[in-house]
């Protein structure tokens, strides 16, 4: 799915009106009907609930007027509140004229705010994608009043006061919604941790916007869903053998962190690599052979950390980092790997920390390498804290462009930046995956997919991120959030990949 800017959203709106020979009022009614249906069928509003519909002066407010009208006609207890404004959009004015006699909107002011009971539902239709500046005066007062009310808040299209794809200044008033009902496509703002308290749970309501126009709109950011990835993992041919699916080499583990090597190895096996060899310090030999008997184990001469790079000739891809430690000798192994590798690389954890601590190593990164930092590792990698989540995405794009690599930023909605600066956001996963070892599993899975001979670096990365989160989602009903362990994610990698197979 494309993540459009507000200007592109407006253009899409207009193009839909032209392509479907419809009117902007009719489109507004579609949007408002979708919101009304969601309130009735998903939120299960009951007739006793006090509903406050708060409308701004533009088309977001126009949506709100239609929702209020719909609910009023259906017999619900609707209170309609309007913001004072110098100008209203034509569609707002039109919808205001359609209000039934029993539903008069009342204008609010900073010292005349509606009484909202804690058990009420507030429909926030103050501002949507047309927000042009931070809220002040009556709008800011109403937003703070809604936030303090304890009512359930459902935002139409956007929580009012939030920009769709840019940061807002600290301390400005933004609605804290329980649910945000957005039309057709998500907004970038929904995917960023700093906005979680405003957006709440977000849902997409289809309103029949023109698919051809969406298809032809050029964007550099995507929210990647299962529909877009299904079929991208090649089916295994009847006469395939273990040599068909690549031989992966993993360098992982150090004293006290051999489990990371085990998890990444298991994930690489479940990710479909034909053969997996894991290089561990000598102390890891029994651990690895017992816990991952399907993998081959190449021990380092050193007991506790990796000090020598094995011959890379047999391998189709190399992964390095989980539980690796940052010993000086290990750093030399990383340097040698970066200087000599002719096959795809996946770099994680301490390999990234070493790249951060010794930035000259970054100049050696082979193009198309895949790096998988979480935000802290990413900060070490770029050597500068981000001002906010938007700035961090800029840093991610810059890093991918500068190194010509694919760089992940892990979290809920993990982001992937491609060397051309395109951003892809993953749509799977759950908070149960916020547990030690989940990232090691991702590394192993991505390594398997990079060893696959028929996947581009981008497709491998997108499939891996999706399948990792999906495996976590498939594990969840069996484990619950607290009980979900990294090894549970491993167990469901196979089923998650199967869903994506051609
Ligand atoms: N595109 C679609 O797919 C569809 C879109 N639809 C709906 O339309 C919405 C977009 O409508 P929109 O463009 O009229 O903008 P909206 O958010 O109502 O605000 C604009 C008004 O607010 C004002 N204003 C702005 N900032 C302000 C501030 N800080 N403080 C005070 N005032 C401020 C601004 O005034 P101005 O900046 O000109 O002074 C203008 O009057 C979209 O979110 C969705 O709900 C659906 O109906 C159909 C399908
Ligand atoms: N709230 C969440 N929602 C979805 N995925 C999550 C969430 N929290 C963590 N994850 C995923 O779990 C993994 C955690 O990786 P990482 O922080 O490196 O863990 P570790 O270092 O313990 O292995 C990442 O792939 C991340 O996207
Ligand atoms: K809104």
From TrEMBL:
<protein>
    <recommendedName>
        <fullName>Bifunctional NAD(P)H-hydrate repair enzyme</fullName>
        <ecNumber>4.2.1.136</ecNumber>
        <ecNumber>5.1.99.6</ecNumber>
    </recommendedName>
</protein>
<feature type="binding site">
    <location>
        <begin position="59"/>
        <end position="63"/>
    </location>
    <ligand>
        <name>(6S)-NADPHX</name>
    </ligand>
</feature>
<comment type="function">
    <text>Bifunctional enzyme that catalyzes the epimerization of the S- and R-forms of NAD(P)HX and the dehydration of the S-form of NAD(P)HX at the expense of ADP, which is converted to AMP. This allows the repair of both epimers of NAD(P)HX, a damaged form of NAD(P)H that is a result of enzymatic or heat-dependent hydration.</text>
</comment>
<dbReference type="InterPro" id="IPR030677">
    <property type="entry name" value="Nnr"/>
</dbReference>
<feature type="binding site">
    <location>
        <position position="323"/>
    </location>
    <ligand>
        <name>(6S)-NADPHX</name>
    </ligand>
</feature>
<keyword id="KW-0511">Multifunctional enzyme</keyword>
<dbReference type="Pfam" id="PF03853">
    <property type="entry name" value="YjeF_N"/>
</dbReference>
<keyword id="KW-0630">Potassium</keyword>
<dbReference type="GO" id="GO:0110051">
    <property type="term" value="P:metabolite repair"/>
</dbReference>
<keyword id="KW-0521">NADP</keyword>
<dbReference type="GO" id="GO:0046872">
    <property type="term" value="F:metal ion binding"/>
</dbReference>
<feature type="binding site">
    <location>
        <position position="374"/>
    </location>
    <ligand>
        <name>(6S)-NADPHX</name>
    </ligand>
</feature>
<comment type="similarity">
    <text>Belongs to the NnrE/AIBP family.</text>
</comment>
<dbReference type="GO" id="GO:0052855">
    <property type="term" value="F:ADP-dependent NAD(P)H-hydrate dehydratase activity"/>
</dbReference>
<feature type="binding site">
    <location>
        <position position="124"/>
    </location>
    <ligand>
        <name>K(+)</name>
    </ligand>
</feature>
<dbReference type="InterPro" id="IPR017953">
    <property type="entry name" value="Carbohydrate_kinase_pred_CS"/>
</dbReference>
<keyword id="KW-0067">ATP-binding</keyword>
<keyword id="KW-0547">Nucleotide-binding</keyword>
<feature type="binding site">
    <location>
        <position position="157"/>
    </location>
    <ligand>
        <name>(6S)-NADPHX</name>
    </ligand>
</feature>
<comment type="subunit">
    <text>Homotetramer.</text>
</comment>
<comment type="function">
    <text>Catalyzes the dehydration of the S-form of NAD(P)HX at the expense of ADP, which is converted to AMP. Together with NAD(P)HX epimerase, which catalyzes the epimerization of the S- and R-forms, the enzyme allows the repair of both epimers of NAD(P)HX, a damaged form of NAD(P)H that is a result of enzymatic or heat-dependent hydration.</text>
</comment>
<keyword id="KW-0456">Lyase</keyword>
<feature type="binding site">
    <location>
        <position position="60"/>
    </location>
    <ligand>
        <name>K(+)</name>
    </ligand>
</feature>
<dbReference type="Pfam" id="PF01256">
    <property type="entry name" value="Carb_kinase"/>
</dbReference>
<comment type="similarity">
    <text>In the C-terminal section; belongs to the NnrD/CARKD family.</text>
</comment>
<keyword id="KW-0479">Metal-binding</keyword>
<dbReference type="GO" id="GO:0005524">
    <property type="term" value="F:ATP binding"/>
</dbReference>
<feature type="binding site">
    <location>
        <begin position="410"/>
        <end position="414"/>
    </location>
    <ligand>
        <name>AMP</name>
    </ligand>
</feature>
<keyword id="KW-0413">Isomerase</keyword>
<feature type="binding site">
    <location>
        <position position="260"/>
    </location>
    <ligand>
        <name>(6S)-NADPHX</name>
    </ligand>
</feature>
<dbReference type="InterPro" id="IPR004443">
    <property type="entry name" value="YjeF_N_dom"/>
</dbReference>
<dbReference type="InterPro" id="IPR000631">
    <property type="entry name" value="CARKD"/>
</dbReference>
<dbReference type="GO" id="GO:0046496">
    <property type="term" value="P:nicotinamide nucleotide metabolic process"/>
</dbReference>
<feature type="binding site">
    <location>
        <position position="439"/>
    </location>
    <ligand>
        <name>AMP</name>
    </ligand>
</feature>
<dbReference type="GO" id="GO:0052856">
    <property type="term" value="F:NAD(P)HX epimerase activity"/>
</dbReference>
<dbReference type="InterPro" id="IPR029056">
    <property type="entry name" value="Ribokinase-like"/>
</dbReference>
<keyword id="KW-0520">NAD</keyword>
<feature type="binding site">
    <location>
        <position position="160"/>
    </location>
    <ligand>
        <name>K(+)</name>
    </ligand>
</feature>
<feature type="binding site">
    <location>
        <position position="440"/>
    </location>
    <ligand>
        <name>(6S)-NADPHX</name>
    </ligand>
</feature>
<feature type="domain" description="YjeF C-terminal">
    <location>
        <begin position="225"/>
        <end position="500"/>
    </location>
</feature>
<dbReference type="InterPro" id="IPR036652">
    <property type="entry name" value="YjeF_N_dom_sf"/>
</dbReference>
<feature type="binding site">
    <location>
        <begin position="128"/>
        <end position="134"/>
    </location>
    <ligand>
        <name>(6S)-NADPHX</name>
    </ligand>
</feature>
